[in-house]
Amino acid sequence: MKFSLLSSETIYKGRVFDIRVDKIAYESGNEAWREVALHNGGAVIVPVTPEGKFVLIRQYRYPLSEWLLEFPAGKLEKDEDPFLCAGRELQEETGYTADSIVPLGSIFTTPGFCTERLFIYAALGLKPGEHAREEGEQGMEVIELSAEEINEYIRSGKLMDSKSLSAYVMYQAYEGRK
Amino acid sequence: MKFSLLSSETIYKGRVFDIRVDKIAYESGNEAWREVALHNGGAVIVPVTPEGKFVLIRQYRYPLSEWLLEFPAGKLEKDEDPFLCAGRELQEETGYTADSIVPLGSIFTTPGFCTERLFIYAALGLKPGEHAREEGEQGMEVIELSAEEINEYIRSGKLMDSKSLSAYVMYQAYEGRK
Known about the structure:
- The structure is a homodimer of 178-residue chains.
- Chain A is α+β, with helices and mostly antiparallel strands and 178 residues long.
- The first copy, chain A, folds into two domains: 3-38; 40-177, Nucleoside Triphosphate Pyrophosphohydrolase (Alpha-Beta Complex).
- The first copy, chain A, has helices at 82-94, 147-155, 162-177, and strands at 3-13, 17-26, 31-39, 42-47, 54-61, 66-70, 73-75, 97-108, 117-127, 141-145.
- In chain A, the strands form three sheets. The first copy, chain A, has a four-stranded mixed β-sheet with strand order 7-4-9-8, sandwiched between helices. In chain A, strands 1-2-3 form a three-stranded antiparallel β-sheet, with no helix packed on it.
- In chain A, a hairpin with a 3-residue loop joins β1 and β2 (17-26).
- The interface between A and B is large, with 64 and 64 residues.
């Protein structure tokens, strides 16, 4: 894409994201503003029990004022290895630990306005353990669903979290390759 | 979730999103800040040709400085019906019109920090027509892929857009119901 950057200003530095506003000029001479939310990214885990059930959590999402069903996930600390983040969040949010954590690829959640990239992992060989939740994660409920139940949840609008839907189809593609 | 809202301030009003910062108090007395990006939402279309191929576009994504493969999609104007947005974006971005546009449900792209909700549609009975692209959409490439090719693209990291992966698995769930 051919354009030149005329100016770039970070207008907000937040806890979860910063906001940068750029002014660009196309080759035609037309100018445009671009707003970008800068986000560190995160890790998403598809935990699969030895019985082939998927482990999800129901958590309160402040921006929506709703409880959503999602795969476990967490934000990356600066320069954190997403593989380590995946293992930590799995245990914090579900109590499970995993024999193996398999990378499935990565996704961009909102490429139109945000840099957020999420790294997706399958967690296999799960063993029960202790939860270690932070305040604000209290009340999280752990829910185990079969593949058939997940498909029914998708059809009936009970599974609306985009990263979880993406992680599920990536796990399906991974399973289909074996 | 039990908390009380202590303060709420819109600290940025942008073209694509606004930013609101809330201060809340939990029942424990602990206080926390919540940053929310307010987004109007949009529509995503899964266009399927009479031959069963999926129509995607490759477009430049400024925040990532990358070209991404995605299903056609567009932002909602204030109070716009997402069904109308879906038909418009289908034609603008791919040139196709559809005999029928079928709702598949909706998704939240980043429920942790943003209100964005996308309404997902399948576009069936496609007929070729004229593109009507806006500046900044120039250079968009239309790409048609079989289901097998999409699965291979997912496995090899060539399809990384979360809304498109979500829309694809929702279409699969819809197809499985018929």
